[in-house]
C-alpha cells in the first residue's frame, strides 16, 4: 500500500468543486455521531428520515442513502471499524461527511475510478458514490480519511 496523502474532487455541476471534504460554513447539523459496525442499519434509517424531512425523496434520496451506506461500510471494513458521520444542510444541499482514523485510501482507488468488472469482488463503493452524488470530496492520508458527499435538495437539479 502506498503511503501518500491525496485529495480528489468530483463535481457534476457547473460550480467550482471544493478540495476539502467539509463544508466551509456552519449550517444546521442534522446528525453528528460516532458509529461502528452495529450502527450502519440504524444510521441508514435515520439518514433516510432526516433527508425526507429536509425535502429529499424518491430515487435521489435512495441513491444518496446508498452512497452514504457504502462509505460507512468501507470505514467498518477497511479503516478500523469505526468513524464519525455528520449530516448537515448547506446552501440548498445536504452534505454527509464521514471521517475515520484508518490508514488512508490507496492511491489506485482514487486515481482512476473505473467501472468494476461484472464478476469483480469489491471495488464498487467509491465508484457508486461518484455516480449517485452531486459532488464527492476526499481527503486521505496515513492518519485517516474524510469523505464528503453532497446532494442538492432542489429536485430539478
Explain this structure.
The protein is 31% helix and 29% strand. It has four helices and six strands, in the order E-E-H-H-E-E-H-H-E-E. The protein has a six-stranded antiparallel beta sheet. The protein is globular. The model is unreliable at 1-20 (pLDDT under 50).
Ordered list of secondary-structure elements with their pairings:
Layout: E1 6-11, E2 29-35, H1 40-54, H2 58-78, E3 83-90, E4 93-100, H3 107-111, H4 125-132, E5 135-141, E6 144-152
Antiparallel strand pairs: 1-5, 2-3, 3-4, 4-6, 5-6
Helix pairs in contact: 1-2, 2-4
Structural features:
single chain; 157 residues; alpha+beta; six-stranded antiparallel sheet; 4 helices; disordered N terminus
Concise account of the structure shown:
31% of the residues lie in helices and 29% in strands. It has 157 residues and is an alpha+beta fold.
- Strand content is 25-35%
The SSE order reads EEHHEEHHEE
Query: Residue ranges: pLDDT <50 for 5 or more in a row?
Result: 1-20
Class per helix and strand makeup: alpha+beta
Question: Radius of gyration over alpha carbons?
Answer: 15 Å
User: Whole-Å distance between the termini?
Assistant: 38 Å
Sheet of most strands: 6 strands, antiparallel
Amino acid at each position: 500500500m502506498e503511503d501518500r496523502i491525496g485529495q480528489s474532487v468530483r463535481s457534476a455541476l457547473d460550480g467550482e468543486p471544493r478540495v476539502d471534504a467539509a463544508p466551509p460554513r456552519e449550517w444546521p447539523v442534522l446528525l453528528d455521531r460516532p458509529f461502528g459496525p452495529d450502527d450502519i442499519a440504524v444510521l441508514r434509517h435515520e439518514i433516510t428520515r432526516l433527508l425526507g424531512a429536509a425535502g429529499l425523496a424518491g430515487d435521489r434520496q435512495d441513491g444518496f442513502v446508498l452512497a452514504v451506506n457504502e462509505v460507512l461500510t468501507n470505514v467498518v471494513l477497511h479503516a478500523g471499524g469505526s468513524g464519525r458521520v455528520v449530516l448537515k444542510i448547506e446552501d440548498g444541499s445536504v452534505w454527509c461527511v464521514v471521517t475515520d482514523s484508518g490508514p488512508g485510501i490507496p492511491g489506485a482507488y482514487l486515481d482512476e475510478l473505473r467501472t468494476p468488472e461484472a464478476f469483480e469482488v469489491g471495488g464498487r463503493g467509491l465508484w457508486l458514490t461518484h455516480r449517485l452524488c452531486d459532488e464527492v470530496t476526499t481527503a486521505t492520508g496515513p492518519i485517516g480519511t474524510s469523505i464528503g458527499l453532497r446532494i442538492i435538495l432542489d429536485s430539478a437539479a
